[in-house]
Amino acid sequence: MTNDRADTTNINNDVSRPNQSTRFTGLKQAAAIVGAVACLILAGIGFFLPVLPSTPFVLLASYLLIQCSPKMHRRLKGSRFFGRILSDWEDRKGIRPADKVRAIVIVVAGLILTFSVGNLSTTLRFLTLILVLIGLYVIIRLPIAKDETP
Fold it and tell me: What does the pLDDT look like over 64-102, one tens digit per residue?
């Protein structure tokens, strides 16, 4: 009977430490770093293109870096461009309402500018509209940061 209890205790102890077993190593670590860099590049491009929201790519890059390189994650969280978004997401569990509104306004303004100035075919206009709607859906679904109350 004592062996059964010991087995149950070992199972429970293993479950309580998921962080040790979920860290990426080897090829997964390299792929995660490459993926994080790609996400940050897309986020940078998203600052200028209305069809590409930046915040989801920054959050995905953060997740990948947490899994493979906490040191790189700390550097990303301390960066001038992405640090505040990540701090809000990790510490306050969302993004600021002003950031959400700003993102929506920029995406819609970019769409209007693209349609009014760009010489796009009907097919490209339709595809652009679909991508913008997907981006807006993602932005709208992001949770609002909770107030900092002690």
Answer: 888 888 888 888 888 887 788 888 888 888 888 888 888
Pick from 80, 40, 77: nearest CA to 60: 40
Query: Does some domain include residue 146?
Result: no
CA atoms of 60 and 102, how far apart (whole Å): 20
Length of the chain counted residue by residue: 150
HSE of 138 in the Cβ direction (CA atoms, 13 Å)?
A: 16
Look at the chain and report how many structural domains it folds into: 1
d(CA 75, CA 70): 9
Q: Is 96 helix (H, G, I), strand (E, B) or coil?
A: coil
| Residue 43 domain flag | yes
- Domain membership flag for residue 116: yes
pLDDT averaged over the chain?
A: 77
Q: Tokens 């059964």 identify what position?
A: 4
- Looking at the chain, the whole-number percentage of residues with pLDDT higher than 90 is 5
Report yes or no on whether pTM surpasses 0.70: no
Query: Are the C-beta atoms of residues 19 and 103 closer than 8 Å to each other?
Result: no
Tell me which residue range forms the domain holding 63: 2-141
- Give the number of C-alpha atoms closer than 13 A to the C-alpha of residue 69, restricted to the C-beta side: 19
- Residue 148 placed within a domain: no
